Amino acid sequence: MNWKTVAAAVAFAGIAIGSAMAADGTHEAREALMKKIGGAAGSLGAIAKGTKPYDAEAVKVALTTIAETAKVFPDQFKPGTETGDKAASPKIWENMDDFKARAAKLSADAETVLAQLPADAAGVGAALNTVGGNCGGCHQLYRVKE
């Protein structure tokens, strides 16, 4: 077994465990999930910019992290958890159907890119534009500017 296969298996296990452990609806859980998505996007960004070499396994792990985390993220915004969170807008709870639809689109787009795995840094950059557009649109509506 090669090191890339082992690394991918460990990363996938971490995704599953992290998602299960972070499923409590607190600000900290929401923040942990967003950091996972941000870290995955950062990894893709480094490949797209050429500061990291293209690595198909790293791209797979990052896209899988985004797809899986986006599926569970909206569940962290349960009724009664809207207070005390400085970064989340009350609009999330007011427009929960839209919020969930945006997260589902992010997940679906990441899965689509994963199914047609980019073969080089330029492809990763194009994929990041699609996935990142989802992130930016949601942040404009549902993240409080500090």
What is the count of β-strands?
Answer: 0
Span of the ends, CA to CA: 47 Å
Gross geometry: elongated
Question: How many domains would you count in the coordinates?
Answer: 1
Query: Which structural category fits the helices and strands?
Result: mainly alpha
Helix-strand string: HHHHHH
Topology:
Blueprint: H1 3-21, H2 27-49, H3 56-72, H4 91-94, H5 96-115, H6 121-142
Mind explaining what this structure looks like?
The chain is an all-alpha fold. Helices cover 72% and strands 0% of the residues. Helix 1 (3-21) packs parallel to helix 3. The protein starts with a helix and ends with a helix.
Give me some keywords for this one:
disordered N terminus; 72% helix; Four Helix Bundle (Hemerythrin (Met), subunit A); mainly alpha
Summarize, please.
With 146 residues, the protein is mainly alpha-helical. The protein has helices at residues 3-21, 27-49, 56-72, 91-94, 96-115, 121-142.
